[in-house]
Amino acid sequence: xxxxxxxxxxxxxxxxxxxxxxxxxxxxxxxxxxxxxxxxxxxxxxxxxxxxxxxxxxxxxxxxxxxxxxxxxxxxxxxxxxxxxxxxxxxxxxxxxxxxxxxxxxxxxxxxxxxxxxxxxxxxxxxxxxxxxxxxxxxxxxxxxxxxxxxxxxxxxxxxxxxxxxxxxxxxxxxxxxxxxxxxxxxxxxxxxxxxxxxxxxxxxxxxxxxxxxxxxxxxxxxxxxxxxxxxxxxxxxxxxxxxxxxxxxxx
Length: 252
Fold this sequence. Notes:
Blueprint: E1 20-24, H1 29-40, E2 44-49, H2 52-62, E3 66-69, H3 75-84, E4 89-94, H4 109-130, E5 134-143, H5 158-176, E6 180-186, H6 192-198, H7 202-212, H8 221-233, E7 241-244, H9 248-251
Parallel strand pairs: 1-2, 1-4, 2-3, 4-5, 5-6, 6-7
Helix pairs in contact: 1-8, 3-4, 4-5
């Protein structure tokens, strides 16, 4: 007779149990999926967005502890939001904002300044307003992209803003330590925003990516969320950029 005993399955503990995750831009797409994933890992989730109706629906879907509707680029509203949140916060993710495309010679000075600074200014304002709120070892997670790294006609100033984000993230990580700062850089992600931008060209773009990407499929918001949570929980990660584009930058 065998003396072997049956293995007892070990139940995995939720990775974010007892922690608070704030997602700026959490009402749809990458932000919503990350909020959903964080909630599944035991976190209390707080989400923000500009559209009150969409935000309320998202908050109900993920079981958010709190939701606040405001424009993240409104500095006063952003500061007021974080001021009202009880400390400590464990993780903040910023998905709001995006690149601006178009010929640079057709942009006036104010448009150039806005295009170059939008994401960086928002990240800085979040960093300032969360000072003393995010616990040591917690994290600030930014979202950039890989799609504009290769300079080509039509991208305009987007390549410059994309290139600025990784060194900005590293420098901010040094200033915010021991709070950790990291950057996720997706390529095309099949989100409602992508659908609104591409319109009737969306399916053509999906088919093109299925045919050309090394992974043979389109990257979705859940793929990015699946990366975001481990970056939050691994306390050895800071100042780094993590690409998640299915190999798009190598075949575009």
